[in-house]
Amino acid sequence: MKDITSIVKEKIYKTILQNSLISPGDKVIIGLSGGADSMCLAHVLCSLSERLMFEVAAAHMNHNIRGESAESDAEAAKRFSERLGIKFYYRSADVVGYSKQHSISEELSGRELRYSFFEDLQKKYGFNKTATAHNKNDNAETLLMNFIRGSSVSGLCGIPVKRSTIIRPLIDVTRSEIEAYCCENKLPYVTDSTNLKDIYTRNKIRLKLIPELQNEFNPNFINTVTANARIINEENEYINTEAKKVYEKFKTQSSVTELNKLHNALKRRVIMMMLTDKYGSAADISSAAVEDISDLCMKNQTGKRVNIPKGYIALTEYGRLTIKKAKQAENFLYKLNVGEEVYIPQLNSYIKAEICTKKQKDKCIYISCNEADELYVRSRRNGDVFFPEGMHGRKKLKNFFIDKKIPAESRSLIPIITVGEEIAAVSDIRTDRRYIFGKNKINLKIIIK
After folding, report:
1. How far is the CA of 138 from the CAs of 7, 170, 213, 250, in angstroms?
2. Region 307-336: what's the mean pLDDT?
């Protein structure tokens, strides 16, 4: 029976060869956190460096979140690098400050700053690869996290074994094998205390969800889910290859009719490729966004749009699908005189109020007011309240939009009809019960086109 050292080394060696991760003459930086994963990776790569003819160095970034513990981790990583006889690079970063400045999580801030550090080292010292210590358990956690968040198929392929200059030789080794390797080879390692707290989504999956799945459903869950991810990835690559052929023809015309002729699997991929061109990464694209755009194409109505993440909109115009940045809505206020048409440039629409005797079943706005009342159309304002027809009491306009599931970026584009300072109607969505058709002396039909 093979010892754990042989098993782990063979797995890493096989991963490197099968995926062409390292070539003779490469200069590889190892992201050395001081944890068991990175210590194991550094130890194995150093042992393989002469055989595969590549150079190794270590890099450690202090996140400055855990005070003295973080400084101790950095010192441990440095001592281990000296023991292995490899160069050691160090950087101190203000992860918390970066997180606040960019309004992102500390977890994401740390990741961005780490990869920036690796890129700087590559440029400055001529390294061409960075090896990170992502393992099989990390892969399973990422799969579950993406699945829970509603990721598209790309997010269910797991952590790629290589991406640009980033390589992951440890991806086929489990965490238990890594810890056993460290024990057998007497490798010192530190445990990040934040990994033991269920304050991050990944930690909750690691500490709660996966153990429950292993205990109650499948003790071999980690191997099962990562093996399935590999199959999904291979099939995903094949469908993408076919979709690229279609996309090359489609993107010059963006024909909705041609898009609707495709099998749904290819249609989704073509839409994802359009989004990727805008976002830069398929991992940021949710399956919900793809389905919303697919549904939009099926309707194929000129001027119809759906809001998608990162301030973009998908729009169908005269048989073409367009994805572009949504314009920031400007505040507006216009007086409405009965019988006069007013152009609203912020909405690229015309609006007209006219006397009406009978309410029709159409998308127009129907209200009533008194002869002396002044009528306006405007954008929403902070603190807006009204008395929705069919409801008791008053309601904040913001809460009304939330209840109606109207996206935040669309709310400033919804025309608000007011009588003086009071809201009379929220577009054609809801009338204020003080101004319902037939209640006051003058009945009006308000047409927006």
Report:
1. 19, 10, 15, 37
2. 82
